[in-house]
């Protein structure tokens, strides 16, 4: 019973204004590693819903014209990074001798949007729950590291708000950590909130790739298993990325009701607190058992892919965006 009380108290504290995304995630990880995590399945479900609705809420602050402009560039960056990640991932899978399913899931999680992409792609290829857990653990470890590492590097390199927002939207795996990293970033002479808007839209442009990536992966694995004479065991279905749909609908609502934009500051504040709670719940899912399940081969593959993606996207943002 006392574990429940401690968990709830720390979760509530992480969602208070005095906290920050980095603090919320750190507290969550500490709770998970200390064995104080409770409501495992419920926490995962709540964090997913929180992220979805908080992202949709941020859509109320983004003008439709700006949405199209950022998304167009984000889609170009996304297409190029997909090729990089899956090409390099295939090479690493051969060198490290990682399993086929684990390799596909790591590539999908790195290239698209972390846990959501892993879940959708895993369902499409009929991956075992153990493979999905291992891939998710590896991606979440690097995702947590990104939240702390990228902002200081961006300040040291004097990245503009748009440059950092684009970089974070590509290099950080999950939506909650993307918004967490971009929430407090303001370049010298920059505009508060611009990095957050850019990062959110760029990330959602990547989320759109969940559908084609999952479908292509499912087709490819079915073909391979048929060639091996094995039963496919794949449904071929893929979930609709509702987070993108809700965000666009919120942008449209904002355009139809201009008075909504007068409360941009309050909307961002409320969404930020929701993201902090989601990050706490995500961090609490990184338990000792989850850490042990991640083998060194899978972790090395995920690390190399993340470094390649972060480096390439940083160079692209620095060179092509003013």
Instruction: State the shape.
Output: globular
- The end-to-end span amounts to 54 Å
In terms of structural class, how would the helical and strand content be classed?
Answer: mainly alpha
- State Rg: 19 Å
Question: In percent, how much strand structure appears in the residues?
Answer: under 5%
Order of helices and strands: HHHHHHHHHHHHHHH
Low-confidence blocks of residues: none
Our count of helices gives 15
How many beta-strand elements? 0
Mean pLDDT: 84
Percentage of helical residues? over 70%
List the topology elements.
Blueprint lengths: L1 H13 L6 H13 L6 H19 L5 H33 L3 H14 L1 H11 L3 H28 L4 H11 L3 H9 L10 H14 L2 H18 L14 H15 L7 H21 L3 H6 L2 H25 L2
Note down, in words, how this protein is organized.
This protein is mainly alpha-helical and 322 residues long. It has 15 helices and no strands. Helix 3 runs antiparallel to helix 13 and helix 8 runs antiparallel to helix 9. The longest helix has 33 residues. The protein is globular. The chain starts with a helix and ends with a helix. The mean pLDDT is 84.
Describe what is shown at a glance:
The chain is mainly alpha-helical. It is built from 15 helices and no strands.
